[in-house]
Design a protein that fits this description.
By secondary structure, the chain is α/β, with parallel strands linked by helices. The protein is built from 20 helices and ten strands. It binds adenosine-5'-diphosphate and magnesium ion (MG).
């Protein structure tokens, strides 16, 4: 009952359709009942009394009845399916929107494959079941009531006898339903694993090929696919067993009814018309009863994916603030920031205090794993500090709307994400209203115009998934052009050039310097000469700021920076000169 309520709740917005479908299902059940009802007058009044004049009426009447039933079944089906499809569509939209508003940490905890599986497979499973189940519930429920009334009217004692087998059958069906719920949950997990494998192997296809791991991936896929098959077959066995039970129960009931009914006819206490009318009702009852017994199984199957979906929907999304910040005027302040990743034991940031004035160029350096990326990820609130607050112009960033906060920031990082569309669309991703001229201007400033113009389609060239056709340096320049076009007051460069060769790096260096003009910039760098030009250099290690100062100050201090410099920057300079 609870479960039926859950399903009904989902289709509530489409109640007009469902209500109309309900009315049609009443009509259909009326037609079914009237067929059983008319057996008596047909037998007793037409055939047994040999009224030849009425004999043509029978086939014509039957034909009309079937046509009517067909039409109403069509209408009913159409309305129910459209209600359930609409429900599924809006549930899918809601789920996607909800997932997209999850904090970044959620995407760290859940693989893309399992998220895709939720939106595609779980919702698909709900869709299949809801449309069939709700339809059966309405139409078969009403039909059973109609036919049972006829059966009782014709011969109440026979009707009672044939009903005796039902409770047992329904009890068994409900027990099996519980098993189905478990099976369906396991099957849903399996299909999620399969989606994960698909996602991983298609995105990682190069690695797989490079290590010749296709056979292993194939095996992994087949193993999981086989498990999925097994779960499905388990589910088929259980739900077909329900049908088997109903079959046996119906056979028992009808056999007993025929034996008892024939005796009553021979005794003369029951007319042939009454008996066959009754029998028709009971036999017609049999199909809907079997379907209804399976409704529970269907609902149990939908419950598992529904629970997975509602689990996701119940997770809190990123809490948006409500303060609109007009622009960036004064300073960014990190105050006593500490942060530990949920999956980790060590603090990634340990009591960070940092003040960045408007227009400053701040460089963050330090060993890898020191917390540099984590620190800058706090600014767009990709992660929320466990302790401390961050202020922009005195406003706590957790009170700002994401739109106004993230609108202030331009982020260029090492891994460039390009979408599967034209270069033009990719560059104006953050500013859809930008004109073609704006895009070209940004591309020129990012030193990207040259190589773009060499493509036959120029700015309209489609770049494949993840921009496979571009080199690392070209991709990087596109991402710089994208950031330039957005033109935010604060720039964050997270090792933007560390994956590039020296020649590309020098070109990009120029692009970056253009980007930094008249802006507040935080640059995380391995080997950039930018570091030397920085107003201030922050050295991080183990989540803490261990040194700050200008290049010359830090060199004079003979601390970690000086060592890093000896190790990396001088070697780098030696190479690039
Ligand atoms: N998503 C994450 N989940 C758990 N730990 C992380 C995550 N990202 C980074 N870390 C850990 O946090 C520490 C700081 O990482 P990071 O800020 O990326 O360092 P850096 O950018 O200085 O190389 C490292 O120990 C790293 O292993
Ligand atoms: Mg990093």
């Amino acid at each position: 009952m609870e479960d039926i309520k859950t399903l009904l709740h989902l289709v509530r917005p489409y109640w007009q359709r469902v209500a109309l479908a309900g009315i049609f299902s009443l009509i259909i059940s009326g037609i079914n009942a009237s067929m059983a009802w008319l057996v008596k007058p047909a037998l007793d009044n037409v055939l047994l009394e040999k009224r030849t004049g009425l004999i043509l009426l029978l086939p014509v009447g039957v034909l009309l009845i079937f046509i009517c039933r067909g039409i109403f079944t069509f209408l009913h089906e159409y309305l129910m399916r459209s209600a359930s499809q609409k429900m599924v569509m809006s549930l899918r939209n809601r789920l996607y929107g909800h997932i997209m508003h999850m904090p970044v940490s959620y995407f760290g905890k859940n693989s893309s494959g399992s998220l895709i599986s939720k939106v595609i497979n779980d919702i698909g499973a709900v869709e299949a079941v809801v449309s069939l189940t709700l339809k059966d519930l309405l139409i078969e429920g009403a039909t059973i009531i109609g036919l049972a009334s006829v059966a009782f009217w014709r011969s109440w004692d026979l009707a009672l006898i044939s009903l005796l087998v039902l409770p047992g059958a329904f009890y068994a069906a409900s027990k099996l339903g519980e098993r189905l719920k478990k099976i369906s949950r396991r099957a849903q997990k399996k299909i999620s694993v399969i989606t994960e494998i698909l996602h991983e192997s298609f995105t990682g296809v190069k690695i797989i090929k490079a290590f010749s791991m296709e056979p292993r991936e194939q095996e992994r896929f087949e193993d999981n696919n086989r498990d999925f098959y097994r779960e499905n077959m388990r589910s088929v066995r259980v739900s077909e067993f329900v049908s088997l039970l109903m079959e046996v129960a119906a056979g028992l009931g009808i056999a007993f009814v025929i034996w008892y009914g024939s005796r009553r006819i021979l005794e003369g206490t029951l007319t042939i018309g009454d008996f066959f009318s009754f029998l028709t009702a009971v036999i017609l009852l049999y199909t809907p009863a079997r379907r209804l017994a399976k409704v529970n199984a269907g609902i149990q199957k939908a419950i598992a994916p529904l629970q997975r979906i509602s689990e996701v929907l119940s997770i809190q999304t990123e809490a948006d603030g409500n303060v609109e910040l007009g622009g960036f005027k004064n300073e960014i302040l990190f105050r006593d920031i500490s942060f530990t990743y949920p999956s980790s034991r060590n603090k990634a940031l340990d009591n960070i205090n940092l003040r960045i004035k408007k227009g400053e160029l701040i460089a963050i350096v330090g060993k890898s794993g020191g917390g540099k990326t984590t620190l800058v990820n706090m600014l767009p609130r990709f992660f929320t500090p466990d302790e401390g607050n961050i202020y922009i112009d005195g406003a706590d960033i957790s009170t700002l709307t994401f739109k106004s906060l993230r609108g202030l920031l331009g982020i260029v990082s090492q891994d460039v994400i390009l979408f599967n569309t034209t270069i033009l669309e990719n560059i104006k991703y953050g500013k859809p209203g930008a004109s073609r001229d704006d895009v070209i201007r940004a591309a020129k400033a990012a030193y990207a115009d040259d190589f773009i113009s060499e493509f036959p389609d120029g700015y309209d060239a489609i770049i494949g998934e993840r921009g496979l056709r571009l080199s690392g340096g070209q991709r990087q320049r596109l991402s710089i052009a994208r950031a330039l076009l957005k033109n935010p007051p604060i720039f964050i460069l997270d090792e933007a050039t560390s994956s590039l060769d020296t020649a590309s790096e020098m070109i990009i260096q120029n692009a970056l310097e253009k980007l930094m003009e008249n802006r507040t910039t935080i640059v995380i760098a391995h080997r950039l000469s930018t570091v030397r030009k920085a107003d201030r250099i922050i050295v991080m290690d183990k989540g803490r700021i261990i040194e700050t100062g200008s290049h010359n100050e830090l060199l004079g201090r003979e601390g970690i920076y000086q060592k890093l410099y000896e190790l990396q920057f001088r070697g780098q300079e030696g190479r690039s000169v």
